[in-house]
Amino acid sequence: MGSVITQHWQGRLPALISLFGILIAVRVLVHLGYGTLPAPLPFAMIVLILLADAALLIWQATGTIRACERCLKIAGGVVLYWASYGVVIASAIYLLTDVTSLVSASVPLRIKTTAAPLELPVHGGVATIEGNIGFDTYNALKSRLDAPQHGILQLQLNSNGGRIYAARAIAKLVLENGLDTRVLIQCNSACTLVFLAGKRRILPENARLGFHQYALASTVPLIDTANEQQKDIGFFRSRGVSDSFINRMFQAEHRDIWFPDRKELLAAGVLTP
Predict the structure, then answer these.
(1) 41, 96, 105, 241: least buried by Cβ within 10 Å?
(2) How far apart are the C-alpha atoms of 213 and 256, rounded to whole Å?
């Protein structure tokens, strides 16, 4: 193993093996590995992952470029030579994208604020979330659920949406505590993530659910919106929602909202019988 590491670093492995085996294949595995990491992670752990991945990429890139330069001198592999630089640049971009996504999923949960904490009303075992969903909403619900004998059995929702990462965190609380979810008036966009986490999912006759595509609302341009959408597609599928409904769910443009009727929601598994 040590010999392979040294040979690659020195550029003495065949160029094709260095490019496709060590650079491309390993970067794909690393990219998939980021998707399995739990969130949120401690900041020190994120820094450690970034440094380790950067060191790995430097080793991969250096050996691949040296191998392709050697191939160029011996066999005139011009295409392979320039391809190595292109793949190195793409790998660096993917590394930044993966780390940025990891930071975005971890840092917001640790943000401290001087504003007064959000009060979450609870009456008769029903907690109610109204308005924009943010991390203050998450903190308020978590505080309630952490209290001994909190008595919360159902989470009532009335929201046009909010931050995706906050909604995911709230959905996790709902799952962990086995709460039912109920829509008060409407539950749109990111709010539907929270609703789908419910053990029993209740939609009164005068209430509605709204779905649409995700839009990039982050100041970090490297966040992959399509990838974030795919993560939540997997969550919806795990909650028993049909693939045909999921496919239609994300067809509506971000500025538009699709409000399926009760019959569609029941047939698709969005509502519990």
Answers:
(1) 96
(2) 9
In this structure, is residue 45 part of a structural domain? yes
- Closest alpha carbon to 57 in 35, 86, 89: 89
**pLDDT(115) > 60:** no
The dihedrals phi and psi of 46, each to the nearest 5 degrees, come to -65, -45
138 and 74 in a common domain: no
Write the pLDDT tens digit of every residue in 125-143. Answer: 999 999 999 999 999 999 9
Q: Is residue 113 part of a domain?
A: no
Over residues 186-225, the pLDDT tens digits come to 999 999 999 999 999 999 999 999 998 765 444 444 455 6
Residue 159: burial class (beta carbons within 10 Å; 0-12, 13-18, 19+): buried
Please, is 209 exposed, middle or buried when counting C-beta atoms within 10 Å of its C-beta (0-12, 13-18, 19+)? buried
Extract the tokens encoding 172: 């996790």
